[in-house]
Amino acid sequence: VTPPKPTLTPGTLTVCSGTLTTISLPDWYGLPDVNERNYHIPGLVWARTANVGAGTYMGQVQSPDGCWSVMSDVVTIASASCLGNCNAPNYTLGTTTWAGCNSTYTTASGTGGAWVFADRPDTYTPFVQWNKPSKAWPVTGSVSGWTSGTSSASSWSNGYPCPAGWRLPSKAEFEALHNAGTVWRAAGANGNAVAGCFYGSGAGTCSLPTPSNCIFLSAAGYRNNSDGTLGNRGSYGHYWSAVQYNSTYGYDMNFGSSDSNPASFDNKAIGFSARCVQ
Fold it and tell me: Are 143 and 222 a contacting pair, CB within 8 Å?
């Protein structure tokens, strides 16, 4: 039995440099966007990665099975920042600017979207494997389709899991951040919703939501290189560097409640978090 067609009201589509990243229209039946509808603009059929310009269009929403469609009055496409909406300031250390928040991904499926900054630093963000930025692995639950093979590339030749203009830190930049100061904080200790470390010259007194001279890195854990199972959640944080140790291992920084290692190296098939610099 075909469910009744929904009644649409005007909605907003937000584009980032011509690429659709966020959809906001009335929800149907409690299903996620990616499963419940396709979007059509007269003369142009597009998905989340379509190239569309700012303006006002007549929008058509089609059922997943293609049996019916309904028109909205107008769909407004608005310009937006490609960087996301991090509520924490960036931190400059020497000639390096550290992003205030981790990288996150714009689609729940972890593919076909874009890397942007998370809304806040004290949250868990998708995991990424070395030099495989086209797939963002979820922060919770089990995964399917995990790839245990490693990239032998000496650098992130497929691009960084960062917004445009940003990159992953070098080993030397992680070491400089570590040397500037590091303090572990349990969840809730200094305004941080999850456990993690404050880094920077102000780490000792730093707090959220208004950090000063510091950044907060969450202890999100990691995804195992062999099968993607989740480990160390809430007790350790692991962040990829832009630099490899050898063809099988990449440098990273990891930390826990009693230690911080800015020159660790691990199997490239492991899923780690990403904090970007410029």
Answer: no
